[in-house]
User: Fold this.
Amino acid sequence: MANIGRPPCDEGVVRASRASAPCTRAAAPWVLAATIIGSAMAFIDGTVVNVALPQIQERLGATAVDAQWIVAAYALFLAALILVGGSLGDHYGRRRIFLVGVGIFTVASVACALALTPGQLIAARAVARRTELETAPA
Assistant:
């Protein structure tokens, strides 16, 4: 597709800025490892419930509607708050928000494991998903 008019960015600004590396060469493997672990946490948490849903329903006495909410609360909060997580990362720093997000995600995951009712599980999964978006690499 051909560009019509000027490109979306100001060429003068792009050429005048000197982009610095976001991290040192020594820190690069650790940044990559943290990114992979954060993405793996998100992937595993997003898929494990689908596999365990029959046992969750049986052990918590969840109805079909509860089961739908257990799965949907995760995606609903991601869609609602993904821009907020990016904005927080821009404002307070990606590393800080990543670490806070991993901490809250861990606590919320423990709450999911300890849930005794479908409502508790739905609430804990919503919190886990909300903070997961903050841990996602930008």
Observations:
- Helices lie at 11-16, 28-60, 64-92, 94-114, 118-135.
- The chain has a mean pLDDT of 80.
- Residues 26-135 form one domain.
